[in-house]
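Re: the pair you flagged

First of the two:
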Amino acid sequence: MYKSGKNWMVAGLMTTAVLAGLTLGNVNTTEAHAAVNNTPVAAAQKTSATSAEVQSQQTVVNSAATAVNSQTAVVASASSALASAQNLNSASAAVSGAEAQWSAAEKNAESARQAMGSASQNSQKAAKELKGATNLQHGFWKSKGSAAYDYLTNLVANTQKELDEAQAQLPDAETAWNLAHDAYEKALHSTIDHHSEEYKALKLNSEKAFNDLDAIQKTISTDKGIISSANAKLNGKANLADGTPHNLIKNKALVDSIPALQEAAQKAHNAYVAASDAASDASVIAYNALDNISAVRDAYNLPDSNGLKKMRHDAMGAPRKINSDKTEINALRTADQTYYGDAVKYASEAAIKEGQAQSAVAKAESDVAVAADQLDQAETQQKAAQAKYDANKTSLNLTLLNNAKSLTGSWQRNLHAANTALETAKNC
């Protein structure tokens, strides 16, 4: 038997040979003892033995018995040592198995804690993005951002339409100017009388063609400037009316993404809750596996050596960390739920107020449409009354004309009031 590392081992072949030899020796000695014991008896039956012979044979018997007893003790001792070594080997294997289980469980617990930390960061990030979007919607976007965005996008669209029309007219205007100018220049240097109507007509056509071309070119230049300025304001590269720059396009996209951000925040929060539960379960498994190491050692009555003490001391650091993690998990979960709850509350309040504002805008837009339609009808009636009066200037037709003008004026005022109400609703 010898010591290898932490385990007691028995030299296999040598131990087996020794034990086999002892056992065989025991059997042979017994047979020799029997032979020694029986031979004198047989001899005594045939002849008379002397006292010296009997005493000599008894000495041999006693020596053989002593040898048998001694060898039996050796066999028992060797067998006991073998059993002790086998027990120690089994105990060491059991402890090693328990340690391996704890090590695997602790690695799983550490991975679960890391996954929980990552899920917590993702949840907090998603909740922060949602809160930022709802704060933007409830604050700047509602107070001025939405109205500024609508005004500038409409300005760009309308101006672009005008620019497209001007650019489409430009080639014809350039051609007309070139023809008219060439004709005038030709007449200027010809024998045509400069006081003649023909000369005057050529000059006027040249001037008109120039003025038309100039107007189109100025419109194109002005429209490009308006579009460039509006786009700069929309992209946050120029200040708005309040003197501050805001990227209205990004703001609009962020406000529009609130439903998607709410869904993402909820998913991230659910993932964090699942990860924290998994981390807690894995920590409990690791803690139980650590306790099992001590239970196995106690079951085999292993000595409380310095190595085992150190192993236990080092291993106990894990459950302490697990207990610390449990407190951290609860704190993170509480903070995350509060953060997420605030974000959902702000989003809900903003959605309600946005709905109310949209309802007010829809009603105001309806009022504008009605007033515009009535104004169109009143203007049509006024034109008809004017035509009647021009054809037949009677007092009746004059009264009808004045009534139509009054009606037109009333609807003009109503339309102005409706437009004012609509702008007010949009800016709320």
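Second of the two:
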Amino acid sequence: MHPLLRHEWAVLRGEVALALPGWRDWLMLAVMVALALALLTGSEAATALRDNRVAALVGAVAGWAGVRAGRRRLDHLARESVIAWAAIDSAGRRFYWAAALFGVALVLAGLGTLAGAPVFPAMFAGMAAGALAAASLPLRTRLARAAAVPPPRDLRRMTPADAVSGYQVFACHPHGRIVAPLVAALASVALAIALPSHWNPALRLAIPAGSVALAMLALIRVDAEMVVFLARSGHGAWRSAGLHLRAAASYAAILLPLLLLCAPHAFWSSAGVIVAIAIVTTLRVWSFRAYPKRFADMMLLFGGAGGAVLGASFPPLLVPFVAIAGIVLLRRAARATWIMA
């Protein structure tokens, strides 16, 4: 096995051992996976997945996400790891991509098996298209790169809190703060308008909502070290969450009025996705302020799985569940302000 793959396998085993140290943790994970599979098999999602167009879209998203994540991981290894020599080796990179795409294909094969229909050709064709699109685009764009020094007009508007908070990370270039949400919003609206009216109503709701989710996730970046730095430099829990949601809020402010005017059928589903991602991002920021990163990630994973099961089985309990979790995290996150250790 190539040293790069051995390193990644060792890292994966170590992370799994830290996250699931005992047999009770594995048992809880198995129960939750079984419940999720049982809910998925009999749900409308499995029915929609039998459509070749939906299967191709799912495959494209999976291929895109797998390649982008793999490129970011290789870039990190080449820049900051002890095996940088292996991360820039052409043979090692080929092995790495083969393993990554094989993992994505296994996940898609599992979804296709649950759908119970011959959707594998469409799904794998979509995966190949998404992977090629992600591989052809640059890993870093000029629009998303933070400006080294804010322009003088921005300097005059800076508060002392901005000056100590890593202002450049969240502010970027003034044109980037406007252009990126505007382009994403116009693309989402164009997609919602372009959908044929004779399509399945569920598809006409799901596809715009999926594009909104992708745009929101692209505009939001939560870094645990930055969250901790903001807490230690005196930012409150709400302001920390607001800084992370600034670009996404601009996107929502542009998108929702346009959808209401041009594509009202996609308004409520898109608004629901925006609210859900904003809530999850806020809870994630607060959890990183209150707990170490690994513990926070595992808590969010199991909390999200429990919330999904609760929402599917008894939706009225989902709102108090999220509210209680948010109040508990907010109280702990607020106490972390100015705490240096």
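DSSP finds 18 helices and no strands in the chain.

-B.
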